[in-house]
């Protein structure tokens, strides 16, 4: 009887791991849903050192605050000390892996200072 419960537990672990792997594979490759280029004002940025938590920039487009996922190097290069400045920014709406699962998110592509 003990062997049967261990065997059932083993099968459950294999099943749930395969379901998790299958769900994760649905995130790859990422799908670009749309691309946008707009004028905006940089409200701020947040650089996260933890691998699973994405860094982001906060921008204001026509009174609406939008958060864009960006890698820390791109934030440092394009936005350090530039809060309140105006930019022409390009970003993509992407479906892929972010945080702890698959979801839609906005990803920074490029910026040009227009001040």
Structural write-up:
The protein has helices spanning 2-25, 72-79; strands spanning 31-46, 56-61, 64-69, 86-98, 101-113. The radius of gyration is 20 Å and the shape is elongated. The model is unreliable at 16-23 (pLDDT under 50). It has one domain (30-113): OB fold (Dihydrolipoamide Acetyltransferase, E2P) (Beta Barrel). It is an alpha+beta fold and 115 residues long. Helices cover 28% and strands 47% of the residues. The relative contact order is 0.21. The protein has a five-stranded antiparallel beta sheet.
Number of strands: 5
Please identify the structural class as seen in this structure.
alpha+beta
The SSE string, one letter per element, is HEEEHEE
Terminal-residue CA separation: 75 Å
Q: Assign the CATH architecture.
A: Beta Barrel
Give me the CATH fold name. OB fold (Dihydrolipoamide Acetyltransferase, E2P)
Unreliable stretches, pLDDT < 50, 5 or more residues? 16-23
Kindly provide the name of the CATH class. Answer: Mainly Beta
- Tell the overall outline: elongated
Strand percentage, roughly?
Answer: over 45%
Mean pLDDT: 83
Q: What is the number of independent domains?
A: 1
Helix coverage percent of residues? 25-40%
Radius of gyration: 20 Å
Q: Largest beta sheet: what is the strand line-up?
A: 3-2-1-4-5
**Biggest pleated-sheet summary:** 5 strands, antiparallel
The tally of helices reads 2
Short recap of the structure:
With 115 residues, the chain is an alpha+beta fold. It contains 2 helices and 5 strands.
